Amino acid sequence: xxxxxxxxxxxxxxxxxxxxxxxxxxxxxxxxxxxxxxxxxxxxxxxxxxxxxxxxxxxxxxxxxxxxxxxxxxxxxxxxxxxxxxxxxxxxxxxxxxxxxxxxxxxxxxxxxxxxxxxxxxxxxxxxxxxxxxxxxxxxxxxxxxxxxxxxxxxxxxxxxxxxxxxxxxxxxxxxxxxxxxxxxxxxxxxxxxxxxxxxxxxxxxxxxxxxxxxxxxxxxxxxxxxxxxxxxxxxxxxxxxxxxxxxxxxxxxxxxxxxxxxxxxxxxxxxxxxxxxxxxxxxxxxxxxxxxxxxxxxxxxxxxxxxxxxxxxxxxxxxxxxxxxxxxxxxxxxxxxxxxxxxxxxxxxxxxxxxxxxxxxxxxxxxxxxxxxxxxxxxxxxxxxxxxxxxxxxxxxxxxxxxxxxxxxxxxxxxxxxxxxxxxxxxxxxxxxxxxxxxxxxxxxxxxxxxxxxxxxxxxxxxxxxxxxxxxxxxxxxxxxxxxxxxxx
Length: 490
Known about the structure:
This protein is mainly alpha-helical. The chain has helices spanning about 15-20, 25-30, 30-50, 55-70, 85-95, 100, 110-145, 165-190, 210-215, 225-230, 235-260, 290-310, 325-350, 355-360, 370-380, 385-400, 410-415, 425-430, 435-440, 450-490, and strands at about 150-155, 160-165, 195, 220-225, 270, 350-355. The chain has a two-stranded antiparallel sheet with strand order 1-2.
């Protein structure tokens, strides 16, 4: 029997079906280095607290360093016979250093707190990676916005023409949405970055462990204290998947607009050939598969969130094997979210927006009707509800005549019938979409000046976020170096 198999209580070996059914090797294979790091910190702490002899700690740490080197070189493959990553690493140490030394590595810990430690070490780096990808997409939108503050396009409510806006205003809307996604992910990171190691099976330990030392060596911000709560908790995964789900709702809405805007009917934009596909039968097709796939991946991430919520809804406190499935959901969602961010960033960066078509669309379907109603209020002293009624009647009569606001004279004549005197020049200014966006100067409005102000503000915020991410990454790197230093000292 291999070292590391937990069969002392049982007769014989597990059936092959049971081994396959309970194995977490596929889920764990991305956490080998985290498991080794957590073990190094634990062993250093055990030696510092005189729980194991320093000579024993040296033997264990040397074996762990060899395991780390083999893992980096791709020579450390997890053995399915050993059930999970923890038993594989322990078995490596026992075979390298001998059971009399390696067998002491697991003193004062359980796989229950160990799996949480590994998961959190891995997860926090993945969250930081996604935050960086969000910032890349924000920067791409800001670059587009900077050169598009006066490029007029239609906006939509109920997928019907609403009011004129600028392309820059549209782009900064997504920057604003992604800013909230960043905040949610930062909150998830803070929840994740607390030390569970030392909770043991669920009740702590009689050994004089130092949980603050392992927290420091592993770069955690704080300690997750209550041992039973720690072992039972998976809400940090729910919080992460919740933040990822809301982020994917942002990306799915963006994808939907890219799909609509790139249709012949809208004609507002074209995706680059690099980010489009064709048809196996229709030679003319150019399909927005990138956006469609992101829209589909959104459902996958939502499903992961719902699945973990359903898994946890009736579990008693303590560790339950149901938890094993959480990382499958988590790792898959993290990978798909990050790839969605990166592919959309490339697609937006290479997309071409059709200014002529945007201008053509915004001049149709009475998109400046609200501006005309506002003019009647501010310049003619007509109450808004009355001016709304007058403009609505003008629109109705123009539609009957198969005209629109482009027919300035007909528009003026209808207004005159309703007691509103206005010159052709004045009316033309009111109904000009470019003038309309300039008039919306309120805080957060679509005027070029206001959009430029928001671009500067968002750029400052993005730069601050980048610094914050860098600071958190540097803290993790310092912890790794501190662990390496303490390993060397021992």
